[in-house]
Amino acid sequence: RVVAFDAAQPFDFEAKQRSSLEKKRKLKIGIVGFGNFGQFLAKRFIANGHEVMATSRSDYDEAARALGVRYFRDPDDFCEMHPDVVIFCTSILSMEATINSFPIQRLRRNTLVADVLSVKQFPKQLFLQRLPDNFDIVCLHPMFGPDSGKGTWKGLPLVYDKVRVGEEKTRQDRVTRLLSIFEDEGCRMVEMTCEEHDRQAASTQFITHTVGRMLGTMQLEQTTINTKGYESLISLVDNTYNDSFDLYYGLFMYNKNATAELSRLELAFSQVKAELFERLHTLIRDDIFEDKPRVGGGGGGE
After folding, report:
1. CB 3.0 to 4.6 Å from 34: which of 60, 92, 174, 256, for a disulfide?
2. pLDDT per residue over 62-96, tens digit each?
3. Rounded Cα distance, 231 and 145, in Å
């Protein structure tokens, strides 16, 4: 029996070509919140051939021009440009106020909306409550930033949750094109629900920031006899303590799993401390009650 494998190849090749071209088709991406992280993303979006526009409360017109980004001080004007994708790059604490005041009704009625917050259930709930039902929603968390991702993004995790995406092929393809930016940059793509993300992040990201802040408060200093372990602690402080307290507070306030993790950390510290002091007390008691040879033969006076 002869099976004509070769006969299907031209069709497979054409299908792959169409898929590749579709992934690379230019998106019009709008960024809301053009601080350091918004600018960081904009550079890569432009490098991948996409058109980028931005709006923010502060005036970033000069920075936007330098990057090749169209900047709008007025969010109404921004929305009138009808971006394919709108990505909210605000702080965690300002997200709700930004959404509430944003002129969503001026966007195209099936716009894809995303966020890049470090917590995920909170923006997901906001989007589902505030956005029209015909808007697509994808929650993103690039688990890197301008420092850790200033060179390559290869191997860095991008967590995403397709919260709500229409069944039309054009809308599915739009999500694929957005995610392909991170995929083409070499990110490790992790599809995960917002709920699972926050559960895991409380045990990793929040605890990391908490320990870093504790050590930063201790004002650790470089020494002439640093060990590798101590160098790691110094690096942890450098990577966390310099972040704004608002970011740290946002990781705590807007992740319902954070309180439990903080309690676990506190309990673990108490247990370690108790074990140390229990052993110390045992040694002291043993020393006190240990039989010792008498000095001078004892006895009374002459």
Report:
1. 60
2. 999 999 999 999 999 999 999 999 999 999 999 99
3. 21
d(CA 36, CA 189): 23
What tokens were used for 263?
């309690």
Per residue in 223-275, pLDDT (tens digit) is: 999 999 999 999 999 988 988 899 999 999 999 999 999 999 999 999 999 99
pLDDT surpasses 60 at 125: yes
Which of 110, 128, 132, 112 is closest to 120 using CA atoms?
A: 128
Tokens standing for residue 284: 């002291």
How far apart CA 163 and CA 243 sit, in angstroms, is 29
CA angle 93, 97, 98 (to 5 degrees): 95
What pLDDT does 243 receive? 85
CA distance 29 to 253: 29
